[in-house]
């Protein structure tokens, strides 16, 4: 049996719990969530689907957990896969998620995360630990939810990426789309907040930090060494629409440089027509020329798909059963 | 050593031979083309890169081959992978390629093909033989060259496809793009022929048979049973442009029905901006909503990428070395 411990049971964790339960049989895997640890919802063993309404409402469901205790609970768990779904923390460079992940790996557990922080700030250490302890490390959900992004390169062996260019943040793309339709920045932001696309503090999106972290993660997968410090990152806070051009917040990287900034796209470019909170990525490849992928970049089931993709990849690669 | 026999050494075969030689070391595979069989170019053993200029010019390079002998050569070969790159034959429902492929499978060889005929007309038999003889069967190159199409579903375990909709033929898309720019059908077709996108007899493209075969192949991968006989297939021969709408030749299928016909797309749809000889496919998925992939659908290195993708997939799955 594949025993899964979920750390962080917000929208993503709940979505994955639901999707795994719904698709387990057709995927032919004997995978069960045996433990859930969440700061608000507590420590829950052998959860059934009946917990979902209370979990969604944010109620305490199990024994109250002291956050300091979470690494010990991870070490002592007999799960073989830990799914780390806590929130992004920029100031502490991905902590405490980084500690949760490394603790899991050091105790021989495979890890899946949807948290950009640990991956963007500690890529090399995590890869090294994954090798040393022979455990899988999946992080598809950090970029474009379940929509194929960097993992599409698994389907393109031998292809070389010259550069990539993406619309990697749905919130700013929604705001820019509404501004293109005539709304002011403030009205568009308010609408995004009303629709649940933007946080109460939307600065990570608006100022371009979220897409920058995603560009760093894709770059690291490609073997390129970019970091927040080495990148030019310009958001959309003071942007004004002029003329008929379509403005998109573009994250770009090649081997030498990386940036995030608003750019005017050629209306003949399909990327100019990626609207609302959709995401897109264009890879420039030596074998295929331009390959564009357009799809959702966030959402409950959309991100759960990414976790299921990572889980199946670990199941196959490490022969879990 | 992975020994590869190439059957049919036109543009695709030459492109794959070049790409394999260039990328073999970085892919870490000991794969060598040991035999080439081609009706015009003859039977060549242990070919080196020096054959390429003559091969491109269509000259005879090895012992002349009687086409009747090709199945025997396949059976007697000690290659473990046969790459079948002969031309599509609709009238004979994929023959002689179907015979080449089944002969290879029956002698225990893995098979990769870029030929739509055998796959679209004989899918069940080929799957059954692949299981019975425990050999791999790759056919990524039959749909959108190396651009991820049906194989993107490998990255989306558990996702269900409600329908797909594609621009699966580059020739007709090029003609429609030029007509949208003001050319007549005849002038656009002539331009496509001058640029090498359309055959001297372009009827398989113009009349929609080529994209119909591709829609059948994708459908079969999804478990849907469509065939040329059960599909409505309308091409672009008598099309006229009216108004400002963007017309694309769309191949569509869900579980119940499939068709190919020209359709007016909403200009807000990124698919409306897939121009020239590019291809695109949109999958409607329960977990991700709409996923769109845009990329090349033909070409020498673009199709070679598909073959390399299939080869690496077989290498991994069957542990070839």
Task: Write a structural description.
Two copies of one chain form a homodimer. The first copy, chain A, is of the alpha/beta class and 321 residues long. The first copy, chain A, folds into two domains: 2-146 and 300-318, NAD(P)-binding Rossmann-like Domain (Rossmann fold, 3-Layer(aba) Sandwich), CATH 3.40.50; 150-296, Dihydrodipicolinate Reductase, domain 2, CATH 3.30.360. Chain A is 35% helix and 22% strand. Chain A is built from eleven helices and twelve strands. Chain A has helices at residues 11-27, 52-56, 70-76, 97-106, 116-121, 123-132, 170-180, 185-194, 203-206, 209-221, 300-318, and strands at 2-7, 31-38, 42-45, 81-84, 110-113, 137-138, 161-167, 232-233, 246-254, 258-265, 278-285, 289-296. Chain A has a six-stranded mixed sheet with strand order 3-2-1-4-5-6, sandwiched between helices. In chain A, β9 (246-254) and β10 (258-265) form a beta hairpin. The model of chain A has no long low-confidence stretch (mean pLDDT 96).
What is the C-alpha radius of gyration of chain A, as a whole number of Å? 20 Å
How far do the termini of chain A sit from each other?
6 Å
What structural category characterises the helix and strand content of chain A? alpha/beta
Assembly type of the chains comes to homodimer
* Percent in helix of chain A: 25-40%
SSE layout and pairing:
Two copies of one chain form a homodimer.
Chain A: E1 2-7, H1 11-27, E2 31-38, E3 42-45, H2 52-56, H3 70-76, E4 81-84, H4 97-106, E5 110-113, H5 116-121, H6 123-132, E6 137-138, E7 161-167, H7 170-180, H8 185-194, H9 203-206, H10 209-221, E8 232-233, E9 246-254, E10 258-265, E11 278-285, E12 289-296, H11 300-318
Parallel strand pairs in A: 1-2, 1-4, 4-5, 5-6, 8-10
Antiparallel strand pairs in A: 2-3, 7-9, 7-11, 9-10, 11-12
Helix pairs in contact in A: 1-11, 3-4, 7-8
């Amino acid at each position: 049996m594949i025993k899964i411990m979920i750390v962080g049971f917000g929208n993503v964790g709940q979505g994955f719990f639901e999707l795994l339960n719904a698709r387990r049989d057709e995927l032919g895997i004997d995978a069960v969530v045996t433990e859930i640890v969440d700061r608000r919802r507590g420590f829950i063993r052998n959860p059934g689907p009946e917990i979902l309404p209370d979990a969604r409402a944010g109620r305490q469901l199990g024994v109250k957990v002291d956050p300091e205790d979470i690494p010990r609970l991870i070490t002592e768990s007999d799960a073989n896969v830990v799914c780390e779904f806590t929130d992004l923390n920029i100031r502490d460079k991905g902590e405490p998620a980084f500690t949760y992940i490394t603790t899991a790996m050091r105790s021989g557990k495979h890890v899946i995360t949807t948290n950009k922080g640990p991956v963007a700030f500690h890529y090399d250490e995590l890869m090294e630990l994954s090798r040393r302890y022979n455990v899988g490390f999946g992080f598809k959900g950090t970029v474009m939810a379940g929509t194929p992004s960097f993992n599409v390169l698994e389907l393109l062996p031998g292809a070389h990426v010259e550069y990539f260019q993406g619309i990697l943040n749905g919130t700013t793309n929604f705001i820019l789309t509404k501004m293109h339709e005539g709304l002011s920045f403030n009205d568009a932001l308010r609408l995004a907040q009303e629709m649940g696309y933007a946080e109460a503090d939307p600065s990570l999106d608006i100022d371009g930090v979220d897409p920058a972290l995603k560009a760093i993660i894709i770059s690291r997968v490609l073997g390129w060494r970019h970091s927040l410090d080495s990148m030019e990152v310009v958001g959309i806070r003071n942007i004004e629409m002029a003329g008929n051009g379509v403005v998109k917040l573009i994250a770009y990287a090649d081997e030498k440089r990386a940036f995030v900034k608003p750019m005017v796209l050629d209306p003949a470019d399909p990327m100019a027509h990626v609207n609302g909170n959709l995401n897109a990525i264009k890879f420039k490849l030596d074998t295929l020329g331009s390959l564009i992928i357009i799809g959702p970049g966030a959402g409950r089931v959309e991100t759960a798909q990414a976790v299921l993709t990572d889980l199946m990849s670990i199941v196959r690669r490490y022969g879990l059963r």
